Amino acid sequence: MNDTTPLHISPALSRDFDVLLDYVDNHINEYVEDLIQICEVPAPTFHEQKRGEFFASFFPDIPNVRLDDVGNVIVPVSRNGYPHVVLSAHLDTVFPFEEIVVHRSGTFLQAPGISDDSAGLACLILLYRALKYAGFPAKGSLTLLATVGEEGLGDLRGARNFFDQFPEPVDYFISLDGCDAERLVTVGLASKRLRVFLRGPGGHSWGDAGVANPIHAAGEFLSKVERLILPKQPKTTLNIGIISGGTSINTIPTEMSMDLDLRSESMETLMWLDQWVVSALNQTLENKPGIHPEIVIVGNRPAGGIAENHLLVRQAISANRRFDLDAKLETGSTDSNIPFSLGIPAITMGVGGSSGKIHTPEEWYDTKGAEAGMKRTAFLLAELLNGPSNG
User: Fold this and answer.
1) CA distance 146 to 46
2) DSSP state of 117
3) Which overall architecture, per CATH, does domain 190-301 show?
């Protein structure tokens, strides 16, 4: 592939593209209905099977749709040679709810996970139907992929498994994640997730007073974290998102745990932060005999990226501009981290529309204007698969 190839629309694509656009415009209501149904199937990380099976049911006319051994849904839309494009969205949410109800008022939808990433899954369905109706792809190969384990401690296990086991080479990977269509993630953010255990002898709060308390020790460690000044460039963060431990108010606990999320735009800085955590923990426990630490790595997302002048990025920017969308190149932690780390051209994009309160029970998605983002993605897919560069 020559990354300096001029951008233009192939004649064949120009003739049929209006059909593709019209389909998207005329079927937004179906998209919304599919979106609501998908969102109302709970899919917490590690428990995505029901949503995966439901998603697979939208493709009865495609043979060999399957769930792989970790629960990814793989939909082989076409097999017409080079290039092979994978269009992906993730199944899982950060929510453990057993029941989800979407509240709708006009174009405004509210429910946990409605935009991240139920919108991406519903968009895969709409784009498949649009491409099929318009007769794309006539060239190239297209796979739709719904991944497990994108969120939190899932550690991108779905994307990892796909690239470890899928027998065919992937030329382009596009992930639909969230709703901001102007956001183009071209750099994968490195992250490391740690679970820190502090363990001690425990005892009665009165009778064993003076025995080292793991929760008290954790408080001293947290104070060090609060005072830590992290670099703004490269942007680096440390978040402690879960603390647990203890059995009763009048018991000195034998164990407590903390979940730490370390992120940085620089692998070198991330390594420094990892070492700082170990050092700060050791300093905290120097004068606390009887308390023993254990650090378990529960997540390790690789870094990587795609050059701003790569054909895929330039095609994505051109597609955005075609539909009056700005193009903001950003850093993020998404399924694209895996192909980034493998040197496979990848990009993560928003579906379209607007959203807010992501990862909260009040998450909302306004589908007004979402057509522009969906048509952008349809255009990008059709151009990659059918354009003159596919030879």
Assistant:
1) 14
2) T
3) 2-Layer Sandwich (3.30)
> Which tokens belong to 16?
């049929």
Sheet with 190-199, side-by-side order of all strands? 236-245, 255-264, 190-199, 292-301
Q: Any idea what the Cα angle at residue 255 is, between residues 250 and 260, rounded to 5°?
A: 125
Adjacent-strand bridge partners of 346:
173
Report which of 15, 284, 31, 240 is spatially closest to residue 134, judged by C-alpha positions: 15
List, as one string, the DSSP characters of 50-80.
HHHHHHHTT-TTSTT-EE-TTS-EEEEEEEE
Q: Do domains 11-188+303-390 and 190-301 have the same CATH topology?
A: no
Q: What are the extents of the domains in the chain?
A: 11-188+303-390, 190-301
Are the beta carbons of 189 and 335 closer than 8 angstroms?
no
- Tell me: cis bond preceding 388? Omega within 30 of 0 counts: no
- Going 372 to 377 to 378 to 380, the CA torsion angle's sign is positive
**Tens digits of pLDDT across the chain (391 residues):** 333 333 344 555 566 788 999 999 999 999 999 999 999 999 999 999 999 999 999 999 998 999 999 999 999 999 998 999 999 999 999 988 888 999 999 999 999 999 999 999 999 999 999 999 988 767 899 999 999 999 988 999 999 999 999 999 999 999 999 999 999 999 999 999 999 999 999 999 999 999 999 999 999 999 999 999 999 999 999 999 999 999 999 999 999 999 999 999 888 999 999 999 999 999 999 989 999 999 999 999 998 999 999 999 999 999 999 999 999 999 999 999 999 999 999 999 999 999 999 999 999 999 999 999 999 999 999 889 886 544 4
Q: Which helix (H) or strand (E) holds 295?
A: strand 292-301
Q: Report how far Cα 94 is from the mean position of its chain's Cα atoms.
A: 11
CATH of domain 11-188+303-390: 3.40.630.10
Identify the helix (H) or strand (E) that includes residue 193: strand 190-199
Local structure of 381: helix, strand or coil: helix
